[in-house]
Design goal:
Blueprint (H helix, E strand, L loop, with lengths): L10 E3 L10 H28 L6 H29 L4 E3 H34 L4 H4 L2 H19 L1 H7 L16 H5 L7 H34 L4 H9 L2 H23 L5 H26 L1 H15 L1
Antiparallel strand pairs: 1-2
C-alpha cells in the first residue's frame, strides 16, 4: 500500500490477471500481437481511404472514423497494459489515471456513436438510394463526426471531477491494467450515489439509445429488403450490411457480456471479470480492420494497391 493524503492516493496500483501472475510474461506476446494488428490494420484502412479517390464516399468516411476511434482506444490503453504485463510496473499517478479513464470511456462512446451513424448510412443507401448523395454530403458527414466526438467528450467531462471529489482511502489497488470509472469509484470511503446514477444515465442515454436505433434501422432495412422481388437483389442489399453487422456484434456483445458477468457472476472467479473486460476493450479494435478487409472488396483492393506502391 502507498501512503495517502487527505483526499486521494498519490498513485494507483494496476493489476494484471489475478491468479495468473506467473503467466504475465507469456501473455505479453499475444497482447503485443493484438496491439500490432489493431494499430497496423486500422492505420492501413485510414491510409487507404485517404489515398484512394474511389473510397471518397460516405460509407468509407464513416469507416475511417471507426478506425480512428479504434486507434485512439488502443493508444489509450497500450502504455499501462504493456507496462503491467511486460515490465511488471504497476504504479500510475492519480491524475494520469483520471486522464486514461476519461479517454477510454470517451473513445468507447465515440465508437458506439460511429456505429450508429454507419447504420444510418446503410439505411439511406438501401431504403432511399435516390437521395443518398443529397442526404449524406461531405458537410453532413463532417458535422456528424464532430457531433459524435463532442457528445463523447461533453457527456464524460464530469467523470474525472466526480472521482476527484471522493475521498479514496480504502485501497489504491485497481482491478485492471488500466483505469475505469466503476473500478475507481468503488475504492471511495464516501457515498458514491451520484457517481453511480450519472454512470447509469450515461450508459442508458448513449450506448443504450445507440443500440436501440441501430436495431431500429436494421428492422427498417429488413422490411425494405424483403419488399424487393429479386432474390439476387435481396442478397446484394444484405451483403452491403454484413461488415457493419459484424462490427456491431464485435462491439456490443462483449459489452453486454461484461454487464451480465458483473451483475449475475458475483461468485465467479475474479479473473473471469478481468478477462471479460479485456475482451470488451481489445477485441473490437483488432476485429474491425480484419472484418472490413475481408468482407469489403474495395478496401481489400485499396490495401493491396498500397502494398504494391510500397514494393515499387
Amino acid at each position: 500500500m502507498r501512503s495517502f493524503n487527505v483526499t486521494h492516493p498519490a498513485s494507483f496500483l494496476l493489476t494484471g490477471i489475478p491468479g495468473l501472475e506467473s503467466l504475465h510474461p507469456w501473455l505479453a506476446g499475444p497482447l503485443c500481437v493484438m496491439y500490432a494488428v489493431a494499430l497496423g490494420g486500422n492505420t492501413m484502412i485510414l491510409q487507404a481511404v485517404r489515398m484512394e479517390s474511389s473510397l471518397h464516399a460516405p460509407m468509407y468516411y464513416f469507416l475511417s472514423m471507426l478506425s480512428f476511434s479504434d486507434v485512439a482506444m488502443s493508444l489509450a490503453t497500450l502504455p499501462t497494459v504493456l507496462r503491467t504485463f511486460c515490465f511488471n510496473a504497476h504504479d500510475i499517478a492519480f491524475d494520469a489515471c483520471l486522464a486514461q479513464m476519461f479517454l477510454i470511456h470517451s473513445f468507447s462512446m465515440m465508437e458506439s456513436g460511429i456505429l450508429l451513424t454507419m447504420s444510418f448510412d446503410r439505411y439511406v443507401a438501401i431504403c432511399d438510394p435516390l437521395r443518398y448523395a443529397t442526404v449524406l454530403t461531405n458537410d453532413i458527414i463532417a458535422r456528424t463526426g464532430l457531433a459524435v466526438t463532442a457528445r463523447s467528450f461533453i457527456t464524460l467531462f464530469p467523470l474525472p471531477f466526480l472521482i476527484k471529489r471522493l475521498p479514496i482511502c480504502r485501497s489504491n489497488v485497481l482491478s485492471h491494467s488500466y483505469c475505469l470509472h466503476p473500478d475507481m469509484m468503488k475504492l471511495a470511503c464516501a457515498d458514491i450515489t451520484i457517481n453511480s446514477i450519472y454512470g447509469l444515465f450515461v450508459l442508458v442515454s448513449t450506448f443504450g439509445m445507440d443500440l436501440f436505433f441501430i436495431f431500429l434501422s436494421y428492422v427498417l432495412i429488413l422490411c425494405s429488403v424483403m419488399a424487393i422481388a429479386s432474390h439476387e437483389e435481396r442478397l446484394k442489399a444484405f451483403n452491403t450490411c454484413v461488415s457493419h453487422i459484424l462490427a456491431v456484434l464485435a462491439f456490443y456483445v462483449p459489452m453486454i457480456g461484461v454487464s451480465i458477468v458483473h451483475r449475475f457472476g458475483k461468485h465467479a472467479p475474479r479473473y473471469i471479470h478481468v478477462l471479460m473486460s479485456n475482451v470488451y476493450l481489445f477485441v473490437p479494435p483488432v476485429l474491425n480492420p480484419l472484418i472490413y478487409s475481408a468482407k469489403t472488396k474495395e478496401i481489400r483492393q485499396a490495401i493491396i494497391r498500397i502494398f504494391h506502391r510500397i514494393k515499387m
